[in-house]
TrEMBL record:
Cited InterPro entries: KR_dom, NAD(P)-bd_dom_sf, Sc_DH/Rdtase_CS, SDR_fam
Keyword terms of this UniProt record: Oxidoreductase
Keyword set includes Transferase: no
Protein name according to UniProt: SDR family NAD(P)-dependent oxidoreductase
GO annotation, biological process: bile acid metabolic process
Domain Ketoreductase positions: 6-193
Entry annotated with the keyword Nucleus: no
Organism field: Paenibacillus chitinolyticus
GO terms for MF: oxidoreductase activity
PANTHER family xrefs: OXIDOREDUCTASE, SHORT-CHAIN DEHYDROGENASE/REDUCTASE FAMILY (AFU_ORTHOLOGUE AFUA_5G02870) (PTHR43639), SHORT-CHAIN DEHYDROGENASE_REDUCTASE FAMILY PROTEIN (PTHR43639:SF1)
Family per similarity comment: Belongs to the short-chain dehydrogenases/reductases (SDR) family.
Lineage: Bacteria, Bacillati, Bacillota, Bacilli, Bacillales
Pfam families cross-referenced by the UniProt entry: adh_short
Length: 246
């Protein structure tokens, strides 16, 4: 198995897509590092679930906007497990602001979303890359969004930040080749806890989608793991949206 005993670091790995990816990586044989900023209970719950299924995992706290914390975590991972082989840059945040409300897209909002969604992914990749380069092999998957492709999303800063993630993916793929592959998955609507209380909106969307379904976190996790395994693919943005952008 490709992932057997590979060390996989998943940022925001305790909830949603990150949690599903952590579990799927473990099922494929990886040793999983579930990192979190605030969701400690969720991260530790994911680790317990992995252990119950016979896998290996640990939870560590690190704020991806703080380079010192990211670097310290990368050192701890390498010291404990010997290396970092795979990175899933999943941690991200948003603010729900009507697209037409430009005044509410404040400097604070822009700075917060870019710090986590873009700079945070770069910082984690920069911390993991030397370990991968040393092994002459590694793979990174960034989690983007169709908001970065369409320009429409929960807010303008969010959509633009995800477009930047797509650009970052291509730049890192160039910068880290040939040893490290870098790809991106761009999900559409995903049935995470973000949809709780918004079921009516979700059901209305389903009726407009060619596949007549909303993707699950597990769907996206399968795609992320597949991209990590594909040794002939780099610099690609894979849309996973049940045909929403079609």
């Amino acid at each position: 198995m490709f992932m057997q005993n590979k060390v996989a670091w998943v940022t925001g790995g305790g909830t949603g897509i990150g949690r599903a990816t952590s579990l799927e990586l473990a099922r494929r044989g990886a040793i999983v590092v579930v990192s979190y900023s605030q969701s400690r209970e969720d991260a530790e719950s994911a680790v317990r679930m992995i252990a119950e299924e016979g896998g290996r995992a640990a939870a560590f706290k690190a704020d991806v906007t703080r380079e010192s914390e990211v670097n310290e975590l990368a050192e701890r991972i390498a010291a404990r497990y010997g290396s970092i082989d795979l990175l899933v840059n999943n941690a991200s945040v948003t603010r729900h602001i009507p697209m037409s409300d430009l005044d509410s897209a404040t400097e604070e909002v822009w700075d917060e979303l870019y710090a986590v969604n873009v700079k945070g992914m770069f910082t984690c990749a920069k911390a993991a890359a030397p370990r991968m380069k040393k092994n002459k092999s590694g793979a990174i998957v960034n989690v983007g969004s169709i908001a970065g492709l369409t320009g429409v999303g929960s807010s303008i800063p969010y959509a633009v930040s995800k477009a930047a993630v797509h650009g970052l993916t291509k730049s890192l793929a160039q910068a880290l080749a040939p040893e490290i592959r870098v790809n991106c998955v761009a999900p559409g609507a995903v049935a995470t806890r973000w949809w709780q209380g918004r079921e009516e909106t979700m059901n209305a969307l389903i009726g407009k989608l060619p596949l007549q379904r909303i993707a699950t976190p597990e769907d996206i996790a399968q795609i992320i793991c597949s991209l990590l395994e594909q040794e002939a693919v780099t610099g690609q943005i894979l849309t996973a949206d049940a045909g929403q952008t079609l």
